[in-house]
Amino acid sequence: MTRYDDETERTFAALPPAHGRGFAQTWWGRAWLKALEDAAMDAAQVKAGRRLARAGAVGAVSVRPGRITAVVQDRDRTAYRADVLLEKLSDAQWDRFSDMAIERSGHVAALLDRDMPPHLVEDAAHAGIDLLPGLGDLEAECDCGAWDHCGHTAALCYQVARLLDQDPFVLLLMRGRAESAVLDALQTRGNAPTEDAAFRPEGVNAAEAYAAGHLLPPLPDLPGLQEGPGAPPSLDTEGTAPPGVDPAALAFLASRAAAEAHRLLAEALRSGHGRQVVGTEPAASHDAVRLAAGDPGPEVLQRLGDGSGRTREALAVAVRAWRLGGVVALSVLEEEWTVEGDTLARARAALESAWDEDERPSLRARNNRWTVVGAPHQLRLDPDGHWWPYRKESGRWAPVGGAAQDPATALATAVLAAGDAA
What we know:
Elements: E1 10-12, H1 27-38, H2 43-54, E2 58-64, E3 67-73, E4 79-85, H3 91-103, H4 105-112, H5 120-126, E5 139-142, H6 151-166, H7 169-174, H8 179-189, H9 195-198, H10 206-209, H11 247-269, H12 284-292, H13 298-308, H14 312-334, H15 341-354, E6 363-366, E7 369-372, E8 377-381, E9 387-393, E10 396-399, H16 407-421
């Protein structure tokens, strides 16, 4: 039987405070914490230890077979040496561990790649080897004089969870063997494969893979939304663009795609978004206006106008509508529809109640458009019952404000816009 040095020691530098994050992100770190918190420890001491570890009060951690040690500063800056003891595995147990791992080719491959699969714990337990500490397995020693676990030893245990995130082989060292010794044993004992091993299928049994599912870490929190869209990748290269490809147009499309993605994400993160009706995909002619609203260069603007069948003047008015109200405002600008039934009755009632009889303007109605007789002002109704103010400019009706519930308010906006233009 090969003998291995059990005096190997590793020292890990002190870790920074863990504000705003969990102590364990990996399976092994989470499993260690679960074993710690399930042990017979006072809940108040566990909480105190978590608070100290989160504040960065744990110094460099020394890990050697059967013992972990660190200096922990209390809240009053008093330093205490904290030790946590864990029983080492015997040579016979390590032999069984190696045999168990060799029996499953997936374990050997993972360990040689410096990875430790979660179901290794269960397979080791079936072989009579407890890798993770169980109830009462973690013994405590501390300069503070506590007879059992205290906040200092609990803080040390929480810090070890973060070390296991970095290197799960720390657990095997605590149990008695360094990484190199474990891997040497696997290679030595695995050099003579049995006849059955030659025909053993590769992979891991699905039931075993999911056996420890309750210890899997939770999904990470969603990242926060940045204040604005990120910068798209640069297209500034030394090569010549292929025929028909305009680098400036591509750069503009990339920047607008980033801006639209940021807008959509902001909407998705708003409270109540999940109860909103999913909108339809914008038509190509609408999307051309959205892009034009992003202030592209003259050449791109011309291409957007040509592609959407709009003159430069018509595209400018469409962009104005888009900026006032998106797809709805653009539809009010470019689409005329018949108002009838209850919608017409509500519109007439709104117009009659908006002004006193002697102040009501003379309006000429055509479909969803009411034009003020003898004045360059117009009201347009959208399908949701909102009124949009319009003014005639250079022979073309153009929107001059956002939607209003009250037609008098919308018409006042149109009149004020005319005064501002004058």
